[in-house]
C-alpha cells in the first residue's frame, strides 16, 4: 500500500510540475531566471516551514545537515536556474519533453551507483513512456524556435541534477521525514538564490510586474514548489527512484494542455496517442516484482 501511495504522489507531483512548466514559460520573459527561482522557492519555503513545525515530524540529524544542504543547493538552487533559463529558448511542451529524459537518467544513475537493479521490464516501461512523450510532442518539435536546442540542453542538465537528487536523497529522507527534509533543503536553495539575485540586481524589474505575472509566481511558489516537491519527496520515501522518476513522463502532457490554454501553443491528436503510451509505460515500469538490488 505504501508503494502505491508513493507512485500516486509522484504522478500528482508530475501533473503539477507540468502546469509549472507552462506557468514558468508564461512569466520567464519578464523576470530574471534567478529571481523567479528565488520567489518560487522562497514562497514555497515560507509555506512549508510552519507546516513542518506543526507536523511534529523528525528533522534531519545534525550529522546529516551538510548532506541535506548540498542536496538542497543542487535541487532547489542549481536545478531551477537551469530549468527557468531553458524556457527562455524553447516552448513549454518541448522543454517538458527534454525533462522527460529524467527516468532514463535516474535509472542509469541508480544502477551505476548500485542503488537499484536494472531490469528488462523497468527499462521497457521507461522506453515506452519516453517514446509516448516523443509521439505526443512530434508536431511541437517540427515547429521549434530557432534556438530551441539551447533550451533542450539546459533542461537535460536540469534533469541530471534531479536524477542525482532522486538517488542520493533517499537515506536522508529515511532518517527524517519527507516534509522536514524538503523544507530544510528548499530553505537552503531559497537562501542561495535570493543572495545571488541580490548580488546580480535580478530583482530590479520586479516592481514592473503586473497582476497576472504575480499570480503565476504565487502559483509557482505554492503549487509548483511547496506541494509539488513535498509530493515528490514523499514518493521517494515510499518507492524506488526509477518508479518515481518515470512519472515525469506525465509532465509534458500536462504542460502541453496548459500551454494550449494560456500560451496558444498547438494541441494535436498526437497528444492523445502519446498519453496512452505514457500510461502503458508507467504501468510496465511500476508493476511486477520489485527489484532486489541494494535498497537504501
TrEMBL record:
The keyword Ribosomal protein does not apply. It is a multi-pass membrane protein. Residues 5-135, 150-286 form the EamA domain. It is found in: Membrane. The chain crosses the membrane at residues 33-53, 65-89, 95-115, 122-142, 148-167, 179-199, 211-232, 244-263, 269-287. It comes from the Bacteria. GO terms for cellular component: membrane. Pfam families: EamA. Keywords: Membrane, Transmembrane, Transmembrane helix. Belongs to the EamA transporter family. PANTHER family: EAMA DOMAIN-CONTAINING PROTEIN, INNER MEMBRANE TRANSPORTER. This is EamA family transporter.
Amino acid at each position: 500500500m505504501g508503494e502505491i501511495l508513493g507512485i500516486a504522489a509522484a504522478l500528482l507531483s508530475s501533473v503539477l510540475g507540468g502546469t509549472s512548466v507552462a506557468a514558468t514559460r508564461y512569466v520567464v520573459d519578464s523576470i530574471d531566471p534567478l529571481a523567479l527561482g528565488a520567489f518560487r522557492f522562497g514562497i514555497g519555503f515560507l509555506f512549508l516551514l510552519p507546516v513542518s513545525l506543526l507536523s511534529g515530524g523528525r528533522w534531519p540529524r545534525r550529522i546529516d545537515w551538510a548532506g541535506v544542504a548540498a542536496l538542497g543547493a543542487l535541487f532547489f538552487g542549481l536545478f531551477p536556474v537551469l530549468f527557468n533559463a531553458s524556457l527562455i529558448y524553447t516552448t513549454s511542451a518541448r522543454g517538458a519533453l527534454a525533462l522527460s529524459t529524467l527516468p532514463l537518467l535516474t535509472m542509469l544513475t541508480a544502477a551505476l551507483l548500485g542503488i537499484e537493479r536494472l531490469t528488462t521490464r523497468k527499462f521497457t516501461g521507461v522506453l515506452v513512456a519516453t517514446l509516448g512523450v516523443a509521439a505526443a510532442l512530434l508536431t511541437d518539435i517540427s515547429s521549434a524556435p530557432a534556438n530551441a536546442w539551447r533550451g533542450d540542453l539546459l533542461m537535460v542538465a536540469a534533469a541530471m541534477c534531479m536524477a542525482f537528487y532522486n538517488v542520493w536523497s533517499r537515506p536522508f529522507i529515511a532518517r527524517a521525514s519527507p516534509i522536514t527534509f524538503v523544507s530544510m533543503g528548499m530553505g537552503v536553495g531559497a537562501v542561495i538564490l535570493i543572495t545571488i539575485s541580490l548580488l546580480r540586481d535580478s530583482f530590479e524589474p520586479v516592481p514592473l510586474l503586473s497582476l497576472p505575472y504575480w499570480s503565476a509566481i504565487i502559483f509557482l511558489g505554492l503549487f509548483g514548489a511547496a506541494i509539488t516537491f513535498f509530493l515528490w519527496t514523499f514518493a521517494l520515501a515510499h518507492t524506488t527512484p526509477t518508479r518515481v522518476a518515470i512519472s515525469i513522463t506525465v509532465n509534458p502532457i500536462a504542460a502541453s494542455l496548459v500551454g494550449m490554454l494560456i500560451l496558444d501553443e498547438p494541441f494535436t491528436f498526437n497528444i492523445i496517442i502519446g498519453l496512452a503510451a505514457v500510461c502503458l509505460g508507467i504501468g510496465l515500469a511500476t508493476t511486477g516484482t520489485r527489484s532486489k538490488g541494494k535498497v537504501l
